[in-house]
Amino acid sequence: MGSLISYISAGNHSEDIFLDFEKAVPQTDEEKEVHARVSAVLNKGPDILERLSTYPGCEEHIRKAITSPSEEAEEAAWAAVLPSVEELKEFYDFSMELEECFPDLLVALCKNDPKASLANLQSLAKQLANVFDFVLRFDDLKMVNPAIQNDFSYYRRTLNRMKLSKNDLNISIRDELANRMSLFFAYPTPMMNVINETTVKFLSQGGGVPKENVTNALATMANVCQEMVEKKNFDNAETNMFCLRSMTGSIILFDHLHATDRKSTRLNSSHAVHL
Question: No. of H helices and E strands in the chain?
């Protein structure tokens, strides 16, 4: 957060922008097209959050299989874990869809002056806020449910045993996918990590958007959301929480991009010393 505070202190703060998160709709054909592509992904978000919030875990079955091992207990644990892991795969698959559509928002909002784009493309500004809102909600739920990683760890251990006994023929989530899912769920905040890494990758591959425009857009979004809450532009408490999540997500991504710059600078300096 220190990078953003320094940025604001230098005078790079937003002014006179109101983002109508309650009524914003796309206006132009280009805006409608990007809005539709992102909506196709985000519309699945409420169902993902509902299922994550009610994810029960397989703790009892796994405990019995470990503390009182028997063929019956292990079969019961495996039968319980399989559908749970398939559900975790759907969460992971959703993160991949988010990774694919997020650059569309970056291009639309950051290819030109980011402050003007946020003001003029209000439906896409709201979509950016929707992404941060979903990401923070998902990660909050994931962090308070240790059953997710416990279930998946048990699945991977059992899968390794099954490979040795050739009993894994009908298993859909195998080594490569299981490794990727394991890396995803290993992060305390997996969805935010996807957004962070997606943005870094997009910028490093030359997506046609200056990095400064992206950081300016994030700083502007954070400031505008904070100002709207302070000025009580919305009477609805949920809308104010939506603004605060958007502000928080913008700050986290802003800081991640600056941390990446600092790390790159240190690596380059270290490399120069050894030449």
Answer: 12, 0
User: Three-state secondary structure along 213-268?
Assistant: HHHHHHHHHHHHHHHHHHCCCCCCHHHHHHHHHHHHHHHHHHHHHHHHHHHHHHHH
Structure tokens at 10: 């230098």
The two three-digit tokens of residue 158, written as one number: 């059992």
Cα Rg of the chain (Å, integer)? 22
Angle at 208 between CA 203 and CA 211, to 5 degrees: 45
pTM of the model: 0.87
Span 206-252, pLDDT tens digits? 778 999 999 999 999 999 999 999 999 899 999 999 999 999 999 99
Q: What DSSP string runs through 104-173? A: HHHHHHHSS-HHHHHHH-HHHHHHHHHHHHHHHHHHHHHHT-THHHHHHHHHHHHHHHHHHHT--TT-SS
